[in-house]
Amino acid sequence: MTRIRVLFLLGMAAVFVSAGCSTAPMKLQAINYGEGAVEQPNAPSLPDGCKVRIASVQDRRAAPSDLGDLGKPVQAEFDIKGWIAEGLRSLEKKTGSSLSTPEATTIDLDAELRNAYIRGVATSKATNIVLTVKYSLKDRPLSEKNYRGQVTCINWIGSEGEIKDSFNEALAQIVQSVAVDVSVLCNTAGDQTLHSKQTISKGE
Amino acid sequence: MSKISGIACRISVLLLIVVALSACVENYRPLSMDHQQKLATADVYVYIKQQEIYALIERSNMAAGGGLLFALADSAINNQRAKEQEEYVRPIRDSLIGYDFGTALTGAFSRQMQTVGWPQIRKVTFVREYSKEKLADVVAESTADAVLFLNADYAFVPNFNRLRVATAASIYIKTSPKPDPDMSPVYLNAALVMTEAAKKDMSKEDAVQFWAADNAGRTRASLEKGAALLAKMISYDLKSDRVAEERLEKADIDPIFTDVKLVSKEDDCLIGRLPVNTLKSYCSVK
């Protein structure tokens, strides 16, 4: 009986130790925006007549597959620009506000991904996405702004699903903030510019 | 009998953990005279895992006495602290969008090695992704005598009174064909720079303001200075048997280790060697 217990404890120790030293990367095949993304109940809708067009999404990061590290490197094996565009494109569905714009307006968005990463903090995980969005109206530049999506929560088992949910939630925060700014720009037909280079994120 | 088995069980587990930890933990290995003489040129390969600056947290350790309930409480407390630290560091991060510490560090090493003149640097590469396999490829493909590999990190201490910039440094001799990914370095050490806010007894909020002010000007300057000092310390450590040359001098450089060997003083910084041979520098910023 004691021998079984010894073997069990040795086995468990070996598993924990090997898990601790393993550096094999976790490769994410896809993240689908909306799956697990937490849409806030007060997520703003765009005024009637206000439309957005995602003109471009660029990835400005040094290592496009690098999505941080959660005990082991997390790598993207999918089109991360496509995922960002998918998130921003959800703004096109955000219509139906009781407000309406003076005239039909289409705001063009050019987005640049600056950072996207997850990292382990003790028994938690912290995810950050930084996106620069340039707004323009009929080729006239309106404004440029940095957005940060930031999510910190308990790291249960460091699973792929947990990681994807965390990235989706961080992107959802950015989309929500962009929706607020697009509404402002539509309502003023671009007369009112946003504070240039200001970084905003959830809660602001 | 069962008592003896119990002791044997504990010893086995402890031994396994000790062996495993010793396999994971790096130690100190000076560059031998023989290797110094053979080393004329080197490529520098800089790896920085993090994409942005972060703040360390003070980990709750209620479970140290044992117990699942305490472990769960630790997890909840640590999660709350992690959330708070992410919020505290956000204004500094926002001011540093577009700033690349990797560029600062590679530039500092290029300049420092040029000043010292040895080893001659052929190529400096900065990467965000690293694996032992990749490093073995770099060593095999290098046209220099060796590869100096740096694994750097930068963060604020939990109360934001200090900014910590650190690097582990190791040298791998060029071999052909491709070396085993578990190749052992001929040199291994670490260097650490602590930059302290000159104004004492600041609250955490004030300290965050201090580092975030003027588009995080103090943070940028301290990171640049930290990079330069890391380069200086590592290049100093590569030459001859430095440890034997140094003399023990009482220096108020580390609150934990008081028997630090003072290596040099410059401007607002003291450079010393800790008993574990790590090089450490303390600076202050106004």
Which terms summarize this structure?
heterodimer; A: 204 residues; alpha/beta; Rossmann fold; 8-stranded mixed sheet; 38% strand; elongated; disordered C terminus; B: 286 residues; 7 helices; 9 strands; 24% strand; globular
Task: Please provide a written account of the structure.
The complex is a heterodimer of chains A (204) and B (286). Chain A is 28% helix and 38% strand. With 204 residues, chain A is of the alpha/beta class. Chain A has one domain: 3-Layer(aba) Sandwich (Rossmann fold), CATH 3.40.50. In chain A, strands 1, 2, 3, 4, 5, 6, 7 and 8 form an 8-stranded mixed sheet that branches. Residues 15-20 and 196-204 of chain A have low confidence and may be disordered. Chain B has a single domain, classed as Rossmann fold. In chain B, strands 1, 2, 3, 4, 5, 6, 7, 8 and 9 form a 9-stranded mixed sheet that branches. Helices cover 43% and strands 24% of the residues of chain B. Chain B starts with a helix and ends with a strand. Chain B is globular and about 50 Å long. With 286 residues, chain B is α/β, with parallel strands linked by helices. In chain B, strand 7 and strand 8 form a beta hairpin. The longest helix of chain B has 35 residues, at 204-238. Chain B contains 7 helices and 9 strands. Chains A and B meet through helix 1, strand 3, strand 5, strand 6 and strand 7 of A and helix 1 and helix 3 of B.
